[in-house]
Amino acid sequence: MSNTSEDDKFSVERDRMVKQQLKARGIDDEGVLDAFRTVPRHAFVNASDHERAYDDRALPTRSGQTISQPYMVATMTEALNVQNGHEILEVGTGSGYQTAILLELGATVYTVEKESSLSERARNTLEEIGYDHNISFRVGDGTKGWPEHAPYDRILVTAGAPEVPQSLKDQACESCRIVIPVGSKTKQSLKILRKESGGVWTTESRTGCVFVPLKGSEGWSD
Ligand code: SAH
Predict the structure, then answer these.
(1) What is the pTM of this model?
(2) What are the angstrom distances between the C-alpha of 147 and each of 40, 126, 141, 144, 151?
(3) Which of 11, 80, 152, 209 could form a disulfide with 89 if both were Cys (CB 3.0 to 4.6 A apart)?
(4) pLDDT at 2 over 60
(5) Of these residues, 68, 95, 119, 167, which one is catalytic?
(6) Does ligand 1 come within 6 angstroms of the Cβ of 216?
(7) Which residues 6+ apart lie within 8 Å of 49 measured at CB?
């Protein structure tokens, strides 16, 4: 059976999400907006939540975790300033929705998730909808990065850290950016770190946010 009318309906909902939730709040990078118009967010949530997939909120995922509010994913993605061909380390695969957005922008993504069931689920979802290139999955503690593929052009952490893990800074290219929520277990501030010439890091604080804790040897202890 063809899903064309359902696909059309979701496509209309995505366009509306982009206009009302992203553009209206100042996200103006056309590449980023296009990625949000393209990635089928409903594929990452429970079937019972399909009608809410493009709402202005976080939602539970198919694995009992949380998929962030579209605006937060867009804010982080825009802050990362992804260029075609960038090698990106992502910590916290979760549902894989953010991973799909990065792939849509032409990046090669190395994504680390500490829960094997989530990593497996994300891989299956991504494959089902055609994201099976330029992506490598690892199960483990992402606070240590993924040294075998370093250095990275960009590093994105989608869980809340007590501080920026040194191992991630050590795996950064010249002119790397790291986007990471830093703060307490219940509330963080989105930090954008830029590696300047000479290896000096500058840090900008963007917005308040609430992510699940980054747990690991350079994160929160269990
Ligand atoms: N970006 C995801 C949301 C991630 S939620 C999405 O778009 O759906 C945060 C994820 O970080 C959770 O899945 C959690 O299990 C994972 N996580 C927490 N600490 C981690 C660590 N040290 N290494 C890797 N993943 C971690």
Answers:
(1) 0.96
(2) 31, 24, 12, 8, 8
(3) 152
(4) no
(5) 68
(6) yes
(7) 42, 59, 60
As to burial, measured by CB atoms within 10 angstroms (0-12 exposed, 13-18 middle, 19+ buried), residue 12 is: exposed
167 assigned to active site: no
Sequence-distant (≥ 6) Cβ neighbours of residue 156 within 8 angstroms:
76, 80, 88, 89, 90, 91, 98, 102, 178, 179, 180
Q: Which residue has the tokens 């000479």?
A: 198
Tell whether ligand 1 has an atom less than 6 A from the beta carbon of residue 87.
Answer: no
Q: Is the CB of 104 under 6 A from ligand 1?
A: no
Whether the per-residue pLDDT at 151 is higher than 80: the answer is yes
Assess whether pLDDT exceeds 70 at residue 130: yes
Nearby residues of 56 by Cβ (< 8 Å), 6 or more positions away: 17, 20, 21, 69, 70, 71
Q: Please give the mean pLDDT across all residues of the chain.
A: 95
Which comes out higher in pLDDT, residue 33 or 66? 33
Distances (CA, A) of 7 to 11, 50, 60, 148, 209: 6, 12, 22, 39, 31
